Amino acid sequence: ASEASVNNLNLNLNLNLCFFEGNIIGSGIFISPKGVLEHAGSVGLSLIVWVCGGGICTLGSMCYAELGVTIPKSGGDYSYVTEIFGGLVGFLLLWSAVLIMYPTTLAVIALTFSNYVLQPAFQDCLPPYIATRLLATICILFLTWVNCSSVRWATRIQDVFTIGKLLALALIIVVGLVQICTGHYDYLKPSAAFEFRQDPSVGQIALAFLQASFAYSGWNFLNYVTEEVVEPRKNLPRAIYISIPLVTLVYTMTNIAYFSSMTPEELLASNAVAVTFGEKLLGMFSWVMPISVALSTFGGINGYLFTSSRLCFSGAREGHLPYLLAMIHLKNCTPIPALLVCCTATIVILCIGEMHNLINYVSFINYLSYGVTIAGLLYLRKKRPNLARPIKVNMLIPITYMIFWAVLLGFSLYSEPVVCGLGMVIMLTGVPVYFVGVRCKDKPKWIYRLVERLTYMGQKVCYVVFPQEDPSETEPLTASKAID
């Protein structure tokens, strides 16, 4: 019996690692190198940003591991902040996630997909604006239909298309190592690596970290399914200690491989870095690269659609979103209303945003939510010191993260006040929405009748109902409150 238990634990750890790495390693590594190099100003500093970015993600993940087992609710940041700070702060995080984080991230990945598919056909120029948006929209619509139709199909797409990203990264790293072994590493020598194109500034370095953080985004995704993780006390830390250093190594080696074959100027001029890499080194097999990256981004879109629906469910369960978004299809058990909302918001952002600004925009809001969540850990330590914590990290870890967080956001806002400030403005628009739509219980009766009628119509159109819910999910800290 004990041997079977150990085998099951190892199996669950492997599944958690696959989920964790599959969500972190996404399309970001095929997008962000250009932005990181542009803001860092030199090859050497850009590589330092990639390594340090992985280290910061490790610190954040360790804090999230403590929160994940202390507040064992699915929903990630939103669930923790709502539990610790109350409804308003939780609603603002949810509001920004539904309107900014997930739609913008999906838009960036979809644009990457269309760029890599179309770039081989437009080798001497950028793909047409309308063509990239149209193909990205078709991709979003198709994957929304898949996720609405079957959870099994969505899961299989995720499994199959993960191979694409691993193939592309493995090919880049191996070819890069061959280049280095044959003496092609001029731009990796210290004298050339730290030759700055522009004078480095703290603000530009902060923006370089924001660009890198887009590639690392997903390090907290395991917390969105905490309720489904077997033995999270053991498996969450193991997934963190194994996965994030491995991802950091892969990302750093990928960038080293890029610089072994491309000059910094060529990388900055490229609209699809991996395609340029393949054209220079793979010859007649260069077609492998755009196909592999397209498969990777296709799977990435599918994964984000899947996760966003879980967040909408958590928000609707708390009463912060319309109850229709917490409903699932009667036969397929898929969250159709939540998926349609995310799809619509993504298509709107696709039509109005430019990729580089979108990355800064979403990375700033992501870091803002990370910092608020980890501040919640510090607040919970002070307010409820006797709360049961199966995992308890050293206080230096969240404090170090918060210091880095404050410096990064402060200088990013100083360097890009319009892009970063717009995200904060949109987040703060959630304050009146919260007080009018959620907090106020004395609304006119006709509003309740209208909402009820729209919900009923949505149920009929989407053929959805409330899922059966475990009552124990709604009060995860009841027992621990008694301890305090």
From TrEMBL:
GO MF entries: L-amino acid transmembrane transporter activity; neutral L-amino acid transmembrane transporter activity
GO cellular component, one term: plasma membrane
Keyword Cell cycle: no
GO terms (BP aspect): D-alanine transmembrane transport; D-serine transmembrane transport
Record keywords: Amino-acid transport, Cell membrane, Disulfide bond, Membrane, Transmembrane, Transmembrane helix, Transport
Coiled-coil zones: none
Membrane-spanning intervals of the chain: 47-67, 88-114, 134-154, 166-185, 205-226, 238-261, 281-307, 336-355, 361-381, 393-415, 421-440
Name this polypeptide is given: Solute carrier family 7 member 10a
UniProt organism field: Seriola lalandi dorsalis
